[in-house]
Design goal:
The protein has 382 residues and is of the alpha+beta class. It has a domain of 114 residues: HSP40/DNAj peptide-binding domain. Helices cover 23% and strands 29% of the residues. The protein contains nine helices and 18 strands. It has a four-stranded mixed β-sheet with strand order 13-14-18-17. A three-stranded antiparallel β-sheet has the order 1-8-7. A hairpin with a 2-residue loop joins strand 15 and strand 16. Helix 2 packs antiparallel against helix 3. The chain is elongated. The two termini are 30 Å apart.
Length: 382
């Protein structure tokens, strides 16, 4: 099912201010909070949907990418490639956005930040840059990268405890949090802060693992296969859920964030999904017509130059541009023609040109109805 527009989810305009975005999310979060709608899966999905929208729109950089590229700009056009623009679970939502209500929040005992009765930590995200040429952008590509990251300790299975032995935290009595309840017009509101002693785990390691020294994670190199979808653009950021750093003692893995860097092409220039090629032809070819080969991302193609072609004419090759990452459409290849004028002439060549300039056919007679180069280019990009 297609993802809904983030602005529609929060019921705000595209030019909404940061304060309006925050207020809209707060309204939706209260309306669809799981504690107010127990057992209502539809409300839970809307709660997650609102959190995902707020996570993007409240971040200036992510919002700019979303406005420019849609869901694909924040990793939401993944298909089967493993990218994830949302995919948020309840642990993520409460841990990341609880502060909008003054802390972790609930209605009469929510506890959305716990897993199996205890609070879990989240690993940090990893950021990598991937360079792509136009051919890779046009067709999509799999890239394998080697990254140094935190992974779960194999000796203790990520628990951090030697022989898997724990004891209940005496500070928070195993809850992992300190809780404060307030009465409001909406009912009982509770705010929670993480227990500093156990880091929110609710348990303390009796004896630390000798390999990871109680952290549950070690640093290793890992080769990760990244499937880049066709049509990405320079500066676009994609994400792979759970491929970042492992969290201490069995928490939630962070994400791998991939920043796309587009390599320049020796002949083709990119403008959105269109490609532009500057073709220089000789005066005889412009006057008499000819056939020439021009480069595309998939190899060279032959095009026809009509007799009497003027400098500045633009030929459009439909579908020879780049695909749209958000749809099935493709851009075009625009061939901008310029007629080359020689800077030096032999005596014989000068005599020929001098003779030709006396001909009426060589007297400039521009068609006033014909649009100029910039007007034609403007039409192509509108």
């Amino acid at each position: 099912m297609a993802k809904r527009d983030y602005y529609d989810i929060l019921e705000i305009q595209k030019n909404a201010s940061d304060d309006e975005i925050k207020k809209a999310y707060r309204k939706m979060a209260i309306k669809f909070h799981p504690d107010k709608n127990p057992g209502d899966k539809a409300a839970e999905e809307k709660f997650k949907e609102a959190a995902e929208a707020y996570e993007v729109l409240s971040n200036a950089e992510k919002r700019q990418r979303y406005n420019q590229f849609g869901h694909a700009g924040v990793g939401g056009a993944s298909g089967g490639g493993g990218f994830n623009g949302g995919g948020m679970n309840m642990d993520d939502i409460f841990s990341q956005f609880g502060d909008i209500f003054g802390g972790a929040f609930g209605f009469g005992g929510g506890g959305g930040q716990t897993r199996g009765g205890r609070r879990v930590s989240r690993g940090t995200n990893l950021r990598v840059k991937v360079k792509l040429n136009l051919s890779e952008i046009a067709n999509g590509v799999e890239k394998k990268i080697k990254v140094a990251k935190h992974v779960s300790c194999k000796t203790c299975s990520g628990s951090g405890a030697k022989n898997g032995q724990y004891e209940t935290c005496k500070i928070c009595n195993g809850t992992g949090v300190h809780t404060r309840v307030q009465q409001t017009i909406l009912g009982a509101m509770q705010t929670q802060t993480t227990c500093n002693a156990c880091g929110g785990d609710g348990r303390m390691v009796k004896e630390k693992c000798n390999t990871c020294h109680g952290d549950g994670i070690v640093r290793e190199d890992e080769v990760i296969a990244i499937n880049i979808p066709a049509g990405v653009a320079d500066g676009m950021q994609l994400s792979m859920s759970g491929k970042g750093n492992a969290a201490p003692r069995g928490g939630i893995n962070g994400d791998l964030l991939i920043l796309v860097e587009e390599e320049s092409h020796p002949d083709l220039k990119r403008e959105g999904n269109h490609l532009i090629y500057s073709l220089s032809i000789s005066f005889p070819h412009a006057a008499l017509g000819t056939s020439v080969e021009v480069p595309t991302v998939d190899g060279k193609v032959k095009i026809k130059i009509d007799a009497g072609t003027q400098s500045g004419k633009v030929l459009r090759l439909k579908g020879k541009g780049l695909p749209d990452v958000n749809s099935y459409g493709k851009g075009d290849l625009l061939v901008e023609i310029s007629v080359y004028t020689p800077t030096t002439l032999s005596s014989d060549e000068k005599k020929i040109i001098e003779k030709l300039q006396e001909s009426k056919n060589f007297t400039p007679n521009p068609n006033k109805k014909e649009k100029g180069f910039f007007d034609r280019m403007k039409e192509y990009f509108e």
